[in-house]
Amino acid sequence: MPSADRTHQCDSVEPRIVVALDFASAGRALELVDRLDPGRCRLKVGKELFVRTGPELVKRLVDRGYSVFLDLKFHDIPNTVAGACRAAADLGVWMVNVHALGGKEMLTAARRAIDSDSQRPLLIGVTLLTSHDIQSLGEIGLQGDPLTGVTRLAELAQHTGLDGVVCSAQEASGLRARFAKDFRLVVPGIRAFGARTDDQRRVVTPAAAIAAGADYLVVGRPITRAADPLWALSALEQEMRSARRRLDR
Ligand SMILES: O=C(O)c1cc(=O)[nH]c(=O)n1[C@@H]1O[C@H](COP(=O)(O)O)[C@@H](O)[C@H]1O
């Protein structure tokens, strides 16, 4: 069986919500995880929690049956990124990401590094962070509309064999129209209408993200910092269900 097919065994799209466990300790993360269910959401372990707790917590979450997105956004010379991706695959995670800005050689090395794994993780390229807007992108020399830059990086990701990209939902419909359905669009920067945006700039509501063709919605603070995280998760699910019903009509 080609390796691309093997990844699909644990990637049936549902559940679409990926809860970002941006906590400062394993204890605080597990307090929330204990109230969740692998059938209801996937989990993301990012830099803060990983630096605090290391791979042990990741393995624990995988052992509990969760699809885990290891979000360490690797960006380095090809050999270093290849080794990091292999290490991530050894943890049994469902998804791992690298910065598409790392370029063709780095992305190709990342993909090759995990190719021979029997259950390789989905390899996703981060395009332009959702915390950037047109002005802050200009400050780092990336002029113009974010969609142009995101599309260019997504094309590079696809040509180098990646399984999809992280983008904002503001670019998702443009990408959805351009790429095949199995090219995953992973979308953070999700905020309810009128909610605080924190450090995110290219934000979109859950319903609009679904309508734009997002496969996975990465949600952190709107759930983890809610007075009642389970209620916040239910409200999000409800909004997404309604959006999908509207699309199916
Ligand atoms: O790769 C990511 O997950 C990511 C990429 C990006 O462009 N923007 C972005 O916010 N993220 C992550 O998605 C999560 C969003 O968190 P909240 O803004 O709290 O919902 C954080 O854990 C970020 O690290």
From TrEMBL:
For substrate, which residues are the binding ones? 22, 44, 71-80, 130, 191, 200, 220-221
Keyword Thylakoid attributed: no
Q: What is its EC number?
A: 4.1.1.23
Instruction: Give the GO terms filed under biological process for this record.
Output: 'de novo' pyrimidine nucleobase biosynthetic process; 'de novo' UMP biosynthetic process
User: Which GO MF terms are attached to this record?
Assistant: orotidine-5'-phosphate decarboxylase activity
Which residues are in the Orotidine 5'-phosphate decarboxylase domain?
A: 16-236
Q: Which GO terms describe its cellular component?
A: cytosol
Does the record bear Lyase in its keywords? Answer: yes
Pathway annotation from the record:
Pyrimidine metabolism; UMP biosynthesis via de novo pathway; UMP from orotate: step 2/2
The UniProt entry annotates the active site at D71 (for ompdecase activity), K73 (proton donor), K73 (for ompdecase activity), D76 (for ompdecase activity)
Arranged from A to Z, the UniProt key words for this protein are: Decarboxylase, Lyase, Pyrimidine biosynthesis
**What enzyme class is recorded for this protein?**
lyase
> Which InterPro entries does the entry mention?
Aldolase_TIM, OMPdecase, OMPdecase_AS, OMPdecase_bac, OMPdeCOase_dom, RibuloseP-bd_barrel
Pfam family, any one: OMPdecase
Q: Which Gene3D superfamilies match?
A: Aldolase class I (3.20.20.70)
- What is the catalytic activity of this protein? orotidine 5'-phosphate + H(+) = UMP + CO2
Subunit structure of this chain's protein: Homodimer.
**Role description:** Catalyzes the decarboxylation of orotidine 5'-monophosphate (OMP) to uridine 5'-monophosphate (UMP).
Which family, according to the similarity comment?
Belongs to the OMP decarboxylase family. Type 1 subfamily.
Protein name per UniProt = Orotidine 5'-phosphate decarboxylase
Protein's organism = Nitrococcus mobilis Nb-231
